[in-house]
Specification:
The structure holds 2 protein chains of 2 kinds. Chain A is α/β, with parallel strands linked by helices. Chain A has 14 helices and 21 strands. Chain B has a single domain, classed as Rossmann fold (3-Layer(aba) Sandwich). Chain B has 10 helices and 10 strands. Classes of the chains: A alpha/beta, B alpha/beta.
Chain lengths: ~500, ~250
């Protein structure tokens, strides 16, 4: 018996005896709780090289010593990290002949997600689906269904061009050196409590490498979905754009209704080398909990980009409508001279949702530029905080930042806070900050209604208008979906 | 049957009674003008018909196509065919006039159980209507009323009215803030909509609008009541003598 299999057996036995219930090997689930054995189990399941297991264990040991951060304006009960599962993989036949063989439950899920998937066959890994779709311009989808990529599409096609687009587990097997070189180079394991936890237990995610000089001709996309009950999701995404390359990556998420809080702590690392550009767009629509605040996802994400090369550029666009708790600050480290960072954000909180979100722009190189446009909408009894940092280091001659931070309140029980930190250690830097807080006026509502638009749609229309500057930066595939989402997430906020 | 019939309508805001027993019936195909001094309750009348929140109807009723509309929300009334051209059109940042009108049009269609308008058809409707009203194309692509001049706002409202084709058009002081050229354009737009099945209630302080939109019936409004009703010549008489006679009487 191989060592990895032995470990799996051992941990499975552990689950049976120690915790009083059996581990269903069929569902490929690690026993509840987090110990070094859990991490060994994950690493063994994924057949990882020794260095990665050590990396994980190092992170885990550091994490145990770290306090959970408390500075965010978020209020939630303590999370019991031992009361969660850290590994669950869906069962999947390796190869399917046609759509009929695909688990109908899986297909129904795709439908419910309402994602613009042109070919579900492709997504479900039906043989020959790639040929069926060949020649069609479109979206390459790497679907993350409960921790493990069930399908990677357009892979062969992209590979021909030299683009690596696969799950990070596959990349670990196929390109261990590349993974080792970049993993943790933007967000080191000990960066923060949640990133550290992720480093210890990350299950899957995407890996992208765009080679020198190539403009990736299609949008790369991944859909995350949390399926198994109580499964913490610890996605790890790594995108590297080599010199002079360009890539646009879309990430979208939905989750079904759940009664218990679910923890999500992802890490996304982007690396842009000289003259490279990465555009990263997210639509996040996880279950926000019910009207009284019961259920909902806890979303603690670390997203960071290193604009390492000269003239490199990274643009983050996010539409955040889901989750009970959002803790998220997609950031740019502007290291290369003339590099640029952008952050466009729409965050909607309704009912009892709480979001503490923003960005960090760290200007290190000369003539670095950053632009922040944040639109926060708060309805019901929701609380929302924009927290942003613009830091200019002494060497960053000619650094410039523009920040625009607008809040829209709906009803009289929601709240919006703006906490912009600005630190400049270069007297020549130009920093601008604009902020507004407004309300949907009765006059606007009456005007819309007088034209026949019902109150709910009127709110959606007005809010979409408020977010327009940001929504316009989304790729077409997402823009329409995002507009609909804006309306859906504010349902019940009026009348 | 009148298009709209208002019977003994009393309405108030808070404790203050503003409409004190209005009786008015508009037949299809006719234009009624309501004239009166500031503060007489003219705008209140249009808002009560349109169903704006904050006004309490204490007595009387409004029948639209024979149906009592007391229980209908503003958007339901709008979809039933009531349109109000605002004295002060409201700005909606980030929402283009085109997007806005499409939402309004589709709301009507949805209520009527029809499919949404096809993009090509909508585009053509917008273009044709804009051309007819001599409305600059760029106005349609700009956010609703944002940065519009006073004249542009009123023209945009009439443009909306032309696209939505209501059966009852309420024009609330549409002439206010318009220069003579804009007044002409707006009036032409309104006149182009006059038809046997459509009725108008034109609220104005001044007679000059009525030189362009010639009414069939003129009502003089003072202190929450209609104090005199006559034909178009009544407007001219008012222009010459002012409202003093009526405000004293009321």
């Amino acid at each position: 018996m191989a060592i990895s299999e032995q470990t799996v057996e051992t941990v499975a036995d552990l689950g049976r005896y120690k915790y009083g219930f059996s581990t269903d090997i069929e569902s490929d689930k690690a026993p509840k709780g987090l110990t070094e054995d859990t991490i060994r189990f994950i690493s063994a399941k994924k057949n990882e090289p020794a260095w990665l297991l050590e990396w994980r264990l190092g992170a885990f040991r550091a994490w145990k010593e770290m306090p959970e951060p408390e500075w965010a304006k978020l209020d939630y009960p303590p999370i019991d990290y031992q009361d969660a599962y850290y590994y669950a993989a869906p069962r999947q036949k390796p190869k399917l002949k046609s759509l009929d063989e695909v688990d109908p439950e899986l297909l129904r899920t795709y439908e419910k997600l309402g994602i613009p998937l042109k070919e579900q066959a492709k997504l479900a890994g039906v043989e020959g689906a790639d040929e069926m779709a060949s020649g069609m311009p479109g979206v390459a989808v790497d679907a993350v269904f409960d921790s493990v990529s069930v399908a990677t599409t357009y892979k062969a096609k992209l590979r021909e061009m030299g683009v690596l687009f696969m799950s990070i587990s596959e990349a670990v097997q196929e390109f261990p050196d590349l993974v080792q070189k970049y993993l943790g180079s933007v967000v080191p394991p000990g960066d923060n409590f949640f990133a550290c936890l992720n480093s210890a237990v990350f299950t899957d995610g995407s890996f992208v490498l765009v080679p020198k000089g190539l403009r990736c001709p299609m949008e790369l996309s991944t859909y995350f979905r949390i399926n198994e009950k109580n499964t913490g999701q610890f996605e790890r995404t790594l995108i590297v754009a080599e010199e002079g390359s360009y890539v646009s990556y879309l990430e979208g998420c939905t989750a079904p209704q759940r009664d218990e809080h679910q923890l999500h702590a992802a890490v996304v690392e982007l690396v842009a080398l000289d003259d490279a550009e990465i555009k990263y767009s997210t639509v996040q629509n996880w279950y926000p909990g019910d009207e009284s605040g019961k259920g909902g996802i806890y979303n603690f994400v670390t997203k960071r980009a290193a604009c390492r090369g000269r003239n490199s550029k990274v643009s983050w666009t996010q539409v955040e409508t889901g989750s009970a708790i959002t803790w998220k600050y997609p950031s740019c480290i502007l290291q290369g001279d003339n590099s640029q960072g952008e952050f466009y954000s729409v965050a909607i909180t309704n009912n009892r949702q709480q979001a503490d979100t923003g960005t960090k722009m760290i200007h290190i190189g000369k003539n670095t530029r950053s632009r922040i446009v944040s639109k926060g909408i708060s309805a019901g009894r929701a609380e929302q905080t924009y927290r942003g940092l613009v830091r200019v280091l002494p060497r960053a001659e000619g650094a410039r930042n523009f920040t625009q931070c607008d809040s829209l309140l709906i009803g009289d029980r929601s709240a919006a806070h703006t906490v912009p930190y600005i630190e400049s250690r270069n007297p020549g830097a130009q920093l601008e900050h604009e902020a507004t807080t407004s309300r949907i006026s009765d006059d606007q509502m009456y005007y819309c209604q007088q034209r026949g638009i019902d109150p709910e749609e009127a709110v959606a229309l007005i809010v979409n208008g408020f977010c327009r500057d940001v929504l316009q930066t989304l790729p077409m595939e997402f823009a329409v979906e995002a507009q609909k989402l804006v309306g859906i997430s504010l349902e019940g906020s009026v009348g | 049957m009148p298009l709209i019939e208002i019977k003994n309508l009393h309405a108030r805001i808070g404790e203050r009674e503003i409409l004190k027993g209005i009786n008015l019936a508009i037949e299809p195909g006719t234009v009624h003008a309501v004239m009166g001094p500031n503060g007489a309750g003219k705008s209140t009348l249009s808002n009560v018909i349109a169903g704006r929140e904050g006004y309490e109807v204490t007595e009387g009723e409004i029948l639209f196509n024979g149906e009592n509309i007391a229980e209908l929300s503003p958007d339901e009334r709008a979809r039933a065919g009531i349109f109000l051209a605002f004295q002060y059109p409201v700005e909606i940042p980030g929402v283009t006039l085109s997007t806005f009108l499409k939402a309004a049009l589709n709301a009507r269609r949805k209520a009527a159980g029809e499919a949404e308008i096809a993009p090509v058809e909508f585009l053509k409707l917008m273009r044709d209507t804009a051309r007819r009203l001599n409305l600059p194309d760029d106005l349609i692509r700009r956010p609703v009323n944002v940065g519009f001049s006073g004249g542009e706002k009123k023209r945009a409202d009439i443009f909306q009215m032309s696209v939505l084709e209501p059966t009852l058009c309420l024009l609330d002081e549409t002439d206010s803030g318009l220069d003579i050229d804009a007044l002409k354009v707006v009036s032409e737009g309104v006149n182009a909509l006059r038809s046997p099945e459509r009725g108008f209630l034109v609220i104005t302080h001044y007679q000059r609008l009525l030189n362009h939109i010639v009414p069939d019936v003129v009502h003089v409004f003072a202190d929450g009541r209609i104090v005199k009703t006559g034909d178009a010549s009544l407007a001219e008489e008012l222009e010459a003598n002012g409202y003093a006679d009526y405000t004293d009487a009321a």
